[in-house]
Fold these 2 entries.
Entry 1:
Amino acid sequence: MTSRTAAGAPRSVVGAHGLQLRLPQRWEARLYLRDEPAEEGESLNPVVHLANFALPPGRGDFGSGAVEVMGPGQAFIALLEYEAAEAGTPLFAARGVPRPRVADFAPNALQRRLPGQLGVQRFFTENGRAFCLYVVLGSREHATGLVGEVCGVLEHLEVGRR
């Protein structure tokens, strides 16, 4: 499904499991349910991967398999939903989808440190649902523009009831 922006450029719309995104040009997304629970007794929650490069198959929840092939001018976003009972707990106390700033990114925030890359991880609750947002930037040199792109993608994320 696509829609048109005011300038007439097409935008892809991706939606399922109470999540919907309108993607700018050059961005792609995969939205799926985990194949198996991360822990015993956990339900199969949605995972969203977004990138301004072609997403390779066989990615891990936090982007392993994708971040290794990123270039310096590229960005990767993972949005993972956690159990509903976690919503509003201290870890997920922040309300609303975060909008990271350049100063929030650091190499030490990466799940796996790769040369030149920067990351940020934020936990939050939106519409009674608990999420982790994990973002990787390809380089500090391109960070300002990439953070602008990432925030542009996140502003078009809609979280409804599941």
Entry 2:
Amino acid sequence: MALGLFILTSNLLGVIPGFESPTADKVVPLGCAICAFVYYQTQGFKHAGVAYLKHFLGPIWWLSWLMVLIEIVSHLARVLSLTLRLYANMFAGDLVTMVFFSLIPIGVPIAFLALHIGVSFLQTYIFVLLTTVYLSGAVAEEH
């Protein structure tokens, strides 16, 4: 909840003329994604203990060596995906808004500011939703 609120307020700072969204810098979305990664891995270990590592092995024992590699790459790709999605969308939104403010200073940029606000809410929602999906996968019980 706090991470989502931080992302939303960071995204909305780009609406203020002269300001840039902190999430339009590469390090801020990476830090948020790493926090989400550490959180859902920690919750997975807290929920299942060391048995959480069986999640990485897959269902067939003789393919476990391959499944471990695939799962590690998959979990690291989640961090990359969360980072790039948030960074690229906020950077592009700031850039488009700045370009339209410099070309046409009255009227038209207001529409792009509204679009930027919508994109800010949408990107926050997507980040929090994906983190929740990753968390539910980490604490899921097999039947």
